[in-house]
TrEMBL record:
Residues where N6-lipoyllysine is found: 63
Pfam families noted in UniProt: GCV_H
Underlying gene: gcvH
Source organism of this protein record: Edaphobacter aggregans
Role played: The glycine cleavage system catalyzes the degradation of glycine. The H protein shuttles the methylamine group of glycine from the P protein to the T protein.
Record-level GO cellular component terms: cytosol; glycine cleavage complex
Keyword flag Glycoprotein: no
Listed name of the protein: Glycine cleavage system H protein
Amino acid sequence: MSYPANYKYTKEHEWIEVDGAKGTVGITDYAQNSLGDIVFVDLPKVGDTLEAHKIFGSVESVKAVSDLYSPVSGTVTAINEELKDAPEKINADANNTWMLKLDLSNSAELDGLLAAADYEKFISEETGH
């Protein structure tokens, strides 16, 4: 699986696509594959303030419930309402299925995230593949 080069990644398997001071957040294909069939997504509300590396919600699959961690700090401007009724969209195309959008409060936090090649290396070290 290749990961979009224009995204930044966390070691908790979230991605963020940045456009100026706005970010779009989702989980990686590796994460959805590890989770299995996703049956529920718990997301914050529009207007909520997120802190970098803190929990903002959870994803429930047939295997487990996993916390979601915000890659950066910011204010939620939109959530993907489609995921309430169709969380399986994440399984179908994790790299293009966003969970939330936010206004970044500190763009310098992006420097602490992984580039696509570094994320792929991290996964291979984590899985031994």
